[in-house]
Amino acid sequence: MVNSIDRLRIIVAATLMSALTCAAAQDDSEPISLDAESSLFDRQTNRVEFRQLTISQGDMSISADEAVASGLDFEEGEWRLTGNVTFTIESARISADTALMTFVDNELQTAELVGDPATLEDLGDPEGDPDEDPVRGGAARLVYDNAAQIMRMLDGAWFASG
Predict the structure, then answer these.
(1) How many Å apart are CA 115 and CA 80, to the nearest integer?
(2) Those residues with Cβ within 8 angstroms of residue 3's Cβ, 6 or more apart along the chain or in another chain
(3) What is the pLDDT of residues 72-106, one digit of tens each?
(4) Domain at 2-161: CATH architecture
(5) 51, burial (CB in 10 Å: exposed 0-12, middle 13-18, buried 19+)
(6) Which residues have a Cβ under 8 Å from the Cβ of 6 and sit 6 or more positions away?
(7) If DSSP codes are grouped into helix, strand and coil, which group holds residue 14?
(8) DSSP type of residue 133
(9) What are φ and ψ of residue 148, in 5° steps?
(10) Domain map (residue ranges) of the chain
(11) Which of 53, 54, 71, 134 is deepest in the core (most CB within 10 A)?
(12) Predicted model pTM
């Protein structure tokens, strides 16, 4: 069980950190794609609204029904995603009802995902160890601190391996 808990912590941190920092990073080898059904930009407030948003880079993607950003980039500000929020990278997925991400100097500072519950899962590497069990967990709130590299699972946290 300890190995499974350690694996869960690594998976959650790696998935969220990779997904969010990839969105903020300037990686010339993998272009960032931002697709939305519709978008609206308010020049006075520098606020951007998206509907049916998907951000992807390589094997990472972030999607949500709606998103509001306090700017056109990830340099400074907040991104608030609502409705069917999903972070996916390789075999790992985090799902929530809402997510609030704060960026400073093109780097993710914090992310808070809220759901009923917010869930995470890693089905494992299909080419990896066949005896490795899938890992799943969830909580009402998942709070990630990038500087400390800590993911807190709050309010009704649960974990399952296998």
Answers:
(1) 14
(2) none
(3) 776 788 999 999 999 988 888 999 999 999 988 87
(4) Sandwich (2.60)
(5) middle
(6) none
(7) helix
(8) P
(9) -85, -15
(10) 2-161
(11) 53
(12) 0.78
